[in-house]
Amino acid sequence: MPKPVSMGGPAELMEMATTELRAGRAVIIPTDTVYGLAALPEHVDLLFELKQRPLDKAVAILVARPADAEQMFNPLPATRRLMEEFWPGALTIVQEGCGVRCPDHSLVQALASEVGPIATTSANLSGQPTPNTAAEAAAAFPAVELVIDGGRLQAPASTVVEVTEDGFSILRQGAIVVDGVAE
Fold it and tell me: What gap in Å lies between CA 26 and CA 141, rounded to an integer?
């Protein structure tokens, strides 16, 4: 069973995570909300396999800074307002079928700066509760070699908002309330 890693400084942890991701392997990382099961987007199938998640349920893409979202889509005016108001933070914005989030977590931002956008989903088996600790996340995914311990995470999951030309709708209410911001 993998053991949560908390020794070493942020640079060492980032180097370990970078190596794993670039090798096509998944890692478990802390975010500003919950622990995430992460892989590079070209290996997103690994996340579905490990999580035993239905293929019709999307995963989010984490970016280092708001401007990086433009790699995924051309932000609509409402998207830009949401990004300016809530990023970095616990808001996932879905536009053109792509969910993107810029977390308020220095390790995740540094990692995404180094490797590019990161595909992620909560570090729990599909249908199971989201773990609050790295040890619980590690127990759910014994095949994952690197689990970075970020302490106990008890924040609600990110709010998920879908933006279209007609405005926005909340797909999942989470840590952030966005009523009326983008309209």
Answer: 10
Distance CA 51, CA 140 (A): 9
Give the Cα separation of 54 and 101 in Å (integer): 21
Rounded CA gap, 183 and 4, in Å?
43
End-to-end CA distance of the chain: give it in Å, rounded.
48
Paired sense of beta strands 118-122 and 60-62, if any:
antiparallel
Domain that residue 114 falls in? 4-74+99-153
pTM (predicted TM-score): 0.92
Residues 6+ apart with CB under 8 A from 93: 69, 79, 82, 83, 99, 100, 101, 161, 163
- Please report whether residue 88 resides in a domain: no
When divided into structural domains, the chain yields a total of 1
Block means of pLDDT (10 residues each) for the chain, 183 residues, are 63 91 97 97 97 91 96 94 96 96 95 97 94 95 94 92 94 88 54
Residue 70 lies in a domain: yes
